[in-house]
Amino acid sequence: MAEAIERRNRLVHSTVEIGEVWREYADGSGGEWVHVITAMGEDDCDEHDLRSDLALQQQATCEAVRLLYFLTFGQRLDPVPDQRRE
After folding, report:
1. CA atoms within 13 A on the CB side of 27
2. 65: which of 50, 55, 57, 83 is 20 to 30 A away, CA to CA?
3. What is the Cα Rg of the chain in Å?
């Protein structure tokens, strides 16, 4: 839940900037410009990062609904499958 809250804050409260960043190759032989959807704060994020953050949000929301249902009705709901893609 804490990770989902952190990701939500990053998704909702950060300024979105579209552009490119220079990434060095691991072997030190140069680098290339990599397109990024957003640079939020100090983090460079691409589409995969944003999709992962949104999937984490969805999973946390489902878990919160399951918890609320249990606390309200005293019954468990079936587990929600993890929708995140690594």
Report:
1. 1
2. 50
3. 18
Alpha-carbon distance of 31 to 7, in angstroms, equals 29
Residue 60: its pLDDT value, please? 84
CA distance 81 to 78: 9
Q: What are the residue ranges in the chain where pLDDT is below 50?
A: 86
pLDDT at 82: 63
Whether 60 contacts 52, CB under 8 Å: no
Residue 36 CA to residue 19 CA, distance in Å, equals 6
Pair 59, 53: CB distance under 8 Å: no
